[in-house]
Amino acid sequence: MANWAHLQPAITQEARRLGFDYCGFAPVREAAHADFFAGWLAAGRAGEMTYLERNQEKRRDPARLAEHGAPPFRTVIALGVNYHQFDLPPAVRDDPSRGVIAAYAWGDDYHDMIRPLLYELDAFIRHHTGRTTLGKCLVDTGPVLERDWATAAGFAFIGKNCCSINLDDGSWHFLATILIPELLVADAMPSARTPVPRRHGTCGRCVRCLAACPTDAFVGPYDLDPLRCISYWTIEAREVIPRFLRPAFGNRIFGCDICQEVCPYNRRLRNRTPLMDALRAHQERVAPPLLQGFEPTFPYWLEEAAFSERFHGSPVKRPKRHGMLRNVCVALGNWAEPVATPALIQALHDPHPLPRAHAAWGLGQVLAQHHDSRAGSALQRALESEEDGRVAEEVRLALGS
Prior knowledge:
Elements: H1 8-18, E1 22-27, H2 34-42, H3 56-60, E2 75-82, H4 90-93, E3 100-101, H5 110-129, E4 136-138, H6 146-152, E5 157-158, E6 164-165, E7 173-180, H7 208-212, E8 218-220, E9 223-224, H8 230-236, E10 252-254, H9 258-261, H10 264-267, H11 304-310, H12 320-335, H13 341-348, H14 353-370, H15 373-385, H16 389-399
C-alpha cells in the first residue's frame, strides 16, 4: 500500500491558500466519542434534531462512508476555519433593545463557502496521486464527529463547553473533514481513542463556561443538554419555547456565545480579519435593533420577502421568518418596555401561530411590569378571536386569567 505522507506539507499549504486556518491528518478509525454520542442520543438529547439519530454506525466508523465498490477511506483530513473578528462591545451586547446574533452568523453561511473549497482541495490531492474517485467532503452536515477528528489531527481539544478549542485561536472556528483513500499517516499513528497529549491543552479546573450558562444547559463538564440551550431553541427548534426558559434568553435572538465569551482561551484574542472574505461581518447582522424589523419601510420580521432580502445567504434563515419572529418576541418580552408594545401587537396578529404565542407572552411581560393598557386590550381582543389552542392558552396566562 502506497504511503503518501510526503504530500502532507503540500496539502497543508494548499489548504492555507484556500483559506483554511488549520489542517491536520489522522488515520480512519472508530471515533473517540462514539459511545458517548450513542448514550447522548439514547437519553433523548437530540430533541428535534432527528438528523443526528441517522447513520450512527457511520458516525462511529467513517470508513463506512465509502461508496460500494470504491476504495476504502484510510485518512481523515480535518480542517478548521477561524471566524473570530472582534468581541461584541458590552454596550451593544447588553443593550436590551438590540437582538444579539451569534458571531458565526455575522457573515455568509459557512456551509456554502467551505464546501466548494473542500472539493477543490480534494481535486488537488487527486492531481498528485492520480486517484479517479472522489473523496468525501463534509461541512458538519454529514455523519462525522468532527471534533474528534480535529483532536486526532492535532490542532484542537474538546473543552468543557463542548467546543473544539485551539490553543492559540480559541474556539471560534468551523470544522470540516475530507475522507480519502490515500494513506497520509503512518500505520503507527495513535488511535483516535488515545488520550489527548498535553500539548493539545486542557480546561484544567476552569468551569467559567458551566457557571455562566444562563439556562444551566450543562449537565456537567463536556455534557450539554440542548433542550435547555439557547442556541438549540433559537436555531434548531421549531416548537414553542418553554416558558420557564424564556426570561434567561435575554436579548439573544439567534444562537448564544456566552460559554465561548467567558472562555480564557478566547478572552485574550485580538481583532482580526478572517481569511475567507465571505465570513466578514455584515454590521446589520451583528445586533440589529429589535424594533427596526417592524418598521413599515422594511418589515423584515413581518414579511417573508423582506426577511429573505435582509438575510440573503445568512445562517439566520435557518429557523425561517416565523421562528426568528418568535425569538424576537421573547427578546421584546425580556426588554418589557412599553415602546415594544406596538411591535408585539403586530406579532400577535401574525399568520403563523408560533410568533403569536410568544407575542402574547411578551405583551404579558409589558403588562405585568408597566400596566400598559394597550397590551391588556390587545390580549383581551386576541382571546376573543384566537382559534389556536396553544396561542389562546398563552394569551390567558399573559392576562393572568
